[in-house]
Design a protein that fits this description.
Shape: globular
Radius of gyration: 17 Å
CATH topology of the largest domain: Rossmann fold
Distance between the termini: 13 Å
CATH class of the largest domain: Alpha Beta
Order of helices and strands: EEHHHEHEHEHEHEHEH
Length: 220
Amino acid sequence: MADRKYNYVFFDLDGTIINTGEGVMTSVKYSLEKLGVDIPDYEDFRRFVGPPLLVSYKEFYGMDEEKAREAVRLYREFYSEKGLLMGYPYEGVMNTFKKIKDMGIKLAVATSKPEAYSVEIAKHFGFYEYFDAICGATFDGTRDNKADVINYAFDTLGISGDNHSDVLMVGDRKFDIIGAKTFGMTSVGVLYGYGSKEEFEEAGADFIVEKATDVLDILV
């Protein structure tokens, strides 16, 4: 193991493993309608795929803490019943997971989606078995930004010390890249999700790939 460049690979969930856009966007629409907020173009809700919900409601709609928390509650009211399993795995992700496991590398999900939802999604879509840990946010907001989730994944997998250069973070938004840089990890931005090349370059991604299977080329 000591001779391997990477011993761990962390994957974001929304927009990286599963295209969950429909479930997220429909749930946002529901929450805003319930709050009487004017609904913009539906595609505008794409911005909600990836970042922590509370932050997004505040940033995108100028909500104060109380209203943003109510928006999150309404979102989850719809999402837990109807939106959770809307989506599909991206092309090549399952084969990528299998090959990474065959290399003897440990896999973890590191997502700002609540952990309970993430585990259910992983089991439903059939990739739970590939992962050594499914690490997500808490419902109460005490762990929701990407850096906190990554640190939690370190603890879960027993990764200690200050040198995390053997951990690769794969995600589709700048939050994944910024979170990885916080800990000196190598970061990979995937273009098939909800981020852009410009977003990844500005955030300082170490690699930018077009397909999930391209991650394998980084590992060899």
